[in-house]
Amino acid sequence: MSADNFERNSNDYFGPFSWFDIGRPDFVGVYKGSNGSEWYPEYAQIYAHATGTWYRCPMNAYYGDGEETRWFDCP
Q1: Residue 17 Cα to chain centre, angstroms
Q2: Distance between CA atoms of residues 3 and 54, nearest Å
Q3: Which residue of 35, 39, 57, 72 has the smallest Cβ count within 10 Å?
Q4: 30-47, pLDDT tens digit by residue?
Q5: Cα(41)–Cα(29) distance, rounded to whole angstroms?
Q6: Is residue 16 reached through a cis peptide bond, with omega within 30 degrees of 0 on the bond before it?
Q7: Is residue 75 packed enough to be buried (19+ CB in 10 Å), middle (13-18) or exposed (0-12)?
Q8: pLDDT recorded at residue 2
Q9: Percent of the chain clearing pLDDT 90 (strictly above)
Q10: In angstroms, what is the C-alpha Rg of the chain?
Q11: What is the pTM of this model?
């Protein structure tokens, strides 16, 4: 884990979060505030404890320095 979230060439981990089993995710939403930073997330990875399954949701999207929410499919 990096000392500063979203540093270049690093992986960031958030959670664990606990929800009831929602099954396979169809999509994820990613929100970025307008704090002057820029992001380029490659993917989100979600682990479902109930089934022991990892889900990978590709993003590969550039976020500029403005506030923005985007939705990404989880194939």
Answers
A1: 13
A2: 25
A3: 35
A4: 998 888 788 888 999 988
A5: 12
A6: yes
A7: exposed
A8: 46
A9: 37
A10: 13
A11: 0.73
